[in-house]
Amino acid sequence: MHQPLSKELIHFINYEANTTWKAGPTRRFKTVSDIRRMLGALPDPNGEQLETLCTGYELTLNELPKSFDARKEWTHCPSISEIRDQSSCGSCWAFGAVEAMSDRICIESKGKYKPFLSAENLVSCCSSCGMGCNGGFPHSAWLYWKNQGIVTGDLYNTTNGCQPYEFPPCEHNTLGPLPVCDGDVETPPC
């Protein structure tokens, strides 16, 4: 087996694996720890998935719009255009969940409710969701919201909501004005 991020793995993918895409070196990740830090969503240990509630539609390519921008479709929902930074906490599973939940509440209420649900609350307080900053189960995040609820809370260093995110934004393997994301962080207590 080839080591992750190695020239041998890139060569294998490009010349032996019969893929439809081309691999190449990346400046974004230097180590496997860099990659692991960004992959916080874990498969559910029981194989559970959320129930599909929507119905599929058959469309032709001509029926699809040439472009679609949710920020323009639902301008009354500020959560849709907000980009949150998980810092060095492996909490993408929580961010993805609360961002989608916040957006859905705003869209469904036609802008009457515009919450920014707290990723920190989900990471810290949902004991059935996984391992906090070391990864979690998206399916469990949705069940937690349904059964327990999630408080509001926005970005680091804001006063929006009950429980804002406590980790500061950082540069994820890029050069920029923020400090570099360095090392792992402990999951905050609930």
Topology:
Blueprint (H helix, E strand, L loop, with lengths): L6 H9 L16 H7 L31 H4 L18 H17 L10 H7 L12 H10 L43
Q: Can you put this structure into words, describing what you see?
A:
The chain has 190 residues and is an all-alpha fold. It has two domains: 1-30, no CATH class; 38-45 and 69-190, Cathepsin B, Chain A. It is 28% helix and 0% strand. It is built from six helices and no strands. The chain is globular and about 55 Å long. The relative contact order is 0.15. Keywords: Disulfide bond, Hydrolase, Protease, Signal, Thiol protease. It holds the Pfam family Propeptide_C1. Residues 64-190 form the Peptidase C1A papain C-terminal domain.
CATH topology of the largest domain: Cathepsin B, Chain A
Number of strands: 0
Largest sheet: none
CATH superfamily label of the largest domain? Cysteine proteinases
Class of secondary structure makeup: mainly alpha
Distance between the termini: 41 Å
Shape: globular
| pLDDT < 50 runs, ≥5 residues | none
Instruction: Label the CATH architecture of the largest domain.
Output: Alpha-Beta Complex
